[in-house]
Amino acid sequence: MLYCGLYEVDITPALGMEIPGHFNLRPAKGILERLYALAAYFENDAGEKAVIVTCDVIGIPDCLAMKTRAEIADKLEMSASSVMLCATHTHYGGPVETWGDFVHENNVYIDFLGSRMFDAAVYAAQNKRPVRIGYGRGYENTLAHYRDFILPDGSYATNAHVPGMRALGEIDPEVGVLRIDNADGTPYGLIANYACHCDSVGGVSLFSSDYPGAMRDTLRKTYGADFMPLFVNGFSGNINHIDFEHGTSSEKGYYRRMGRILAGAVSETYEKIFLSDDEAVGGKDERFTIPSRLPDADTLAWAETVRPEDGRIDNFYASEAKRMAAEGSQPIPVTVQVLKIGDLMIYGMPGEIYVEFAKILKERSPSAYTMTANLANGSIGYVVIRELHKKGIYPARICSSAKTQPDAGYEMAERLLKLAEML
């Protein structure tokens, strides 16, 4: 028999706290939607357990993830290798990081987030009941768009809109759904997986759960107020909601429309899923370090020419380049993790991972059903494919959130696949 408990807790910060995610300081002036951490706890008759907690935050700091995973594992008498914490990456959440002068981490909120993730996991375990599960794949190719381009003159750009430019890759249109029903066949909840950046609200200084929250609200209108839909953002470091090739969307409230469309794809997939009595549960992780890269000579020469009047963005990157050169290469702690729930494997990497790594994992995974979890168990910034470590590609422009070497993602993927074989 497989048992599952689902639970959610409020993680909305206090008004006035800074909102990370943009190139300007944004103290929160109000709330569009409250923010939540949602947890799923799984256990089988053999006592094998797994937990996944997904939060409406831009990321989860590495030290917080390590501490909270250990606390959850200790309380629930399980291995921390089977506890996954991940972020939806909303750009309208709480101050969990410092990024230049645009946001400053708030330790009061970080401690609060850790306690709330712990609560969600423990309450989910207390709420466990017999369930049946099933997995399905849907398709949605209108919401997400590849955002790195080669321009007609041969240069590269992110988020560009130039006639004749060409996208350098493709999105992952798969909508993954793990359906969770009560033993009597009534709906209990689901885990949905889709890859798209979570920044579609429009630059406001208001807390918002963005399109994942709108997706959850829509699904609850269909399946009931007690229905528990978790959203796990896939590898979406180079995927966002704006179609730069064919014109951008400036529609007010677009994130709500986006959430409704995604909910429709999730619901269509959910309804086609056949349930099974599979009760396999497990998890494996690996902790290691990778070296940070250093700015090249051209970048440092440019940084020396930047003056205060050149604007806040150039000054930020110039300051970061000089700081990182002075510090030298630093070890970056990394945790990669695989969870197994029935026939499904969920692969987690701790950064804003390029979509190509999801395709590598899906092609080579030993499981027929695969999800990827962006920003799982840490937040090391962008992880870019080798081919796009180019001038003009924003996620490769060196700074505290773009510091990994060109080979980092490939090493993480290989380690994940070895862990998956062990499961």
Protein architecture, described:
With 423 residues, the protein is α/β, with parallel strands linked by helices. The protein folds into two domains: 2-284 and 333-395 and 404-422, no CATH class; 294-328, no CATH class. The chain is 28% helix and 27% strand. It contains eight helices and 21 strands. The strands form six sheets. It has an eight-stranded mixed sheet. Strands 16-17-18-20 form a four-stranded mixed sheet, covered by helices on one side. The chain starts with a strand and ends with a helix. The model has no long low-confidence stretch (mean pLDDT 96).
Radius of gyration: 21 Å
| Percentage of β-strand residues | 25-35%
Please give the order of strands in the largest beta sheet. Answer: 5-4-3-1-6-11-12-14
Number of domains: 2
Which residues sit in consecutive blocks of at least 5 with pLDDT less than 50?
A: none
From the N-terminal CA to the C-terminal CA, the straight-line distance is 19 Å
> How many distinct helices?
8
In helices, the fraction of residues equals 25-40%
Give helix and strand order, one letter per element, not per position. EEEEHEHEEEEEEEEHEEHEHHEEEHEEH
General form: globular
Please sum up the structure shown:
With 423 residues, the protein is of the alpha/beta class.
